Amino acid sequence: MDEQNIQVFIDGVKNYFLQQTGVAAEVGTPYLSDAQARVAYEYTGIIGISGSSRGCVYYTAPGALLRDVLLRIGESDVTPANQSDLAGEVANTIAGNARREFGKDFMISVPVVVSGGAERISLPPDLRAMVVPILWRKHAAALVVALADKQ
Amino acid sequence: MRFFGLGKYRVIVLTVAMFLVFDLGVLVLNFVISSQIAADALAVNMAGRQRMLSQRAAKTLWQINERTVAGQPASGEMAELTEAVALFDETLTAFRQGGSVRGGAGVVVTLDRIDDAEAIAILQRTNAVWEPYRARITSLLANPAPDIDAVRSALDVARGANLELLKLMNELTSQVEVTAAAKATTLRAVQIGGITLATANFVLILFHFLRKLRQGDALLEQAKKETDDILVTVNEGLFLLDRNFRIGSQHSHALEGILGRSDLGGADFVDLLRGIVTEKTVGMSRDYLDLLFGERVNEKLVGSLNPLDVVEVHFDDQRGGFVTKYLEFRFNRVREGGVVAHLLVTANDVTKRVQLERALKEAHERAKGQMDLLVEVLQVEPDALRDFLAAAAVCLDKVNTLLRERTASAADRREAVIAIYRLLHGLKGDASGVGLSGLAESIHEVEDLVVGLREKHATLDGNDFLPLTVRLERLFTQVDALRGVVNRFAQIRGVVAVEPARAATEPDAAQAPQVRRWREFATRLAEKQGKHVQLHYHGVDPATLASPYREALPTVVNQFIRNAVVHGLEKPEQRLAQGKPAAGNIALYLAAREDGGVDLSFRDDGAGLQLAAIRQAAIERGLLSASEAEACDARRLVELIFRPAFSTRSSADEDGGRGVGLDVIRNYVNEWGGNIRIGSTPREYCHFRISLPRPSPQLSAGAARINGEAA
């Protein structure tokens, strides 16, 4: 894991919020979490990464944040299905950004959205994931990067 | 020889040609005979008209006679007689010689000459009767107003000829009809024969064709079944690629499993790669395939350029992750007419092989790393080291907690930076204190980052902490690695009894011939050195080990014994002074692991590695300058004992001092792909552990030549 690659993912999230809502997202202080203490909110968009580094990157957010984003962009349908789609869209934006930045050396999967707790998210074992808190209009969400360099 | 290049189609083409010949023959004959029948029908008509004309001539003569007797003009009858005679005469001539004749309604028709012998005879008889009759009538008609005598004379001739002519013309008509009927019969026979032959020929074609088709179908079916059997059974993915890089319709069943999809026929191979390998590899693969389709390129020469020789592929698992495999694609050209038409592609899933190779490589690298770490921790007090590492983990957790919890405001973040600096600075000091210089350097680099954050002060935001968090993760990893090594190291410290789980000891192994030889060698060597030694053996009978270990391990153990007795074990009086038993102990343990590898543990309870003596020997032998030796850490010093021609003894004798010993062991272990671990505590023990992998076939085949010294 190096900071340049992780920054690409962070920038993906920041760009999404700024362009879609006009309100910048605030990046919190990154910290480490282990497999026993995964961070997960209600909706999680997961992207698989393979190639030079392998593992996954996911954006996880509470329903309240996603509902506010939907309303902000003029979407009146704020049902759970739409919230889930929005989490997938954020993940898609992160994936697209990552493909542009280092698509030649990385394989980036089609994002998948899971709802519910952390047990639905499978991270590489024995890996401390980096949690980057992402705040948007006082709503806490997170970008989690769990990547191991290829041996 | 090929028949006009028709090959296997020769027979069918010939029979079809015969069929056409028969049909055409029938058609031509039909046409010819039909024409003749039409001509015969005309002849029958004309012959019938001759009968009528002969009667008409006679009747007109009678009328002329009547009118002449009555003294009336007979010009109309004369004209009619002229016409009848002329028509009869030209028709008779046409019958005999062929030619044109006036038919019904004044239409001129052509009569063929009659060739039938009987009809010719009839015509000749007719001519004999007709000629005098015609002459008499012609002379009568020469006078427009003939006298009664001339008329009667002509009438007398007519009386004699009329019935004869009628009879002859009847015969002619019948004869012509018979000829026409015969021709019609011939035509029917020809038609029946021709159609029968054509039909028979068609049936022949049909049966021949069907038989051939059935045979061909059966052969094709058999060939297809064989091909299908091969394609279903073969473990490799087999398929053909055309010039557009499209996969052929036929491919092996295994290919679907290898590529994880079933819609492969006609699929674009490059597109298919695009989903599972990086874009860079896709580009290289396309270039390589272009190269293979190039006629001027030598297939074998470009083989080394194959980017898909062993390629890592990633299949999206539809759950936000990837399933990674390693595939091997081999390409062979398929030529048609001297031109590269296809590439035969063989695909194999080599995941297990590659993973095994990687695991071995990683094990080697890990072993090297562990060796480095081991020699680094060698001189560290074990308890202090354990305490430090536990404290280091707690310290790093505290740093992480600060990052997670003390970030609500800029002031919080500034305080967190100060606290983190303090924690890391303390940790660096402790790492240096216990002699872990590598870890201390890493912490120092992170400290520099924290200093940078502290200087940002006013504009410090969460994102600024990213490099620190990344390096914190690396520190965690380093500490984890050290703890792992120390835990393993702890298992081999102290007495041999704390060895990790072993294979069951063979009760008789301690008395095995080879073990007896080692024991005798150790005892003999110790006596020469004025020392006492006891060799304790646990494990398997060395003679049961696989080649080349069976042949080479006696040498390795002899070198360890020599090294332990000469350098490690103290003299009895020294040992007694240190509270040790007078006789030194060597514990030798040999185990054959379940994976085919071998573990060897050799421990003596002597003086341990004496770093000062090693340092001094390195200076004396010119390996290090005095200043270098002084600065040299424990790890580098321990490495020196494996150098060729290195010994801490000041003088050489037959038992040691020339420095040939441990370097021989290291050469063997390197050759076999194993690793050596060393543990030592001054005045307590020295412990070597060798872990050897399952011997490779090459090693087994060319088992190392044994140069060992027999006891």
Features:
heterodimer, A: 151 residues, alpha+beta, eight-stranded antiparallel sheet, 3 helices, globular, B: 711 residues, five-stranded antiparallel sheet, five-stranded mixed sheet, 21 helices, 61% helix, rod-shaped, disordered C terminus
Would you give an account of this structure?
The complex is a heterodimer of chains A (151) and B (711). With 151 residues, chain A is of the alpha+beta class. Helix content of chain A is 34%, strand content 32%. Chain A contains three helices and eight strands, in the order αββββααββββ. Chain A has helices spanning 3-21, 63-72, 80-102, and strands at residues 26-27, 31-33, 43-51, 53-61, 106-108, 112-115, 129-136, 139-149. In chain A, strands 1, 2, 3, 4, 5, 6, 7 and 8 form an eight-stranded antiparallel β-sheet that branches. In chain A, a hairpin with a 1-residue loop joins strand 3 (43-51) and strand 4 (53-61). In chain A, helix 1 (3-21) packs across helix 3. By secondary structure, chain B is of the alpha+beta class. Chain B is 61% helix and 12% strand. The longest helix of chain B is centred in the first third of the chain and has 86 residues, at 148-233. Chain B is rod-shaped, with a radius of gyration of 61 Å. The model of chain B is unreliable at 492-504, 651-660 and 702-711 (pLDDT under 50). The interface between A and B is large, with 40 and 35 residues.
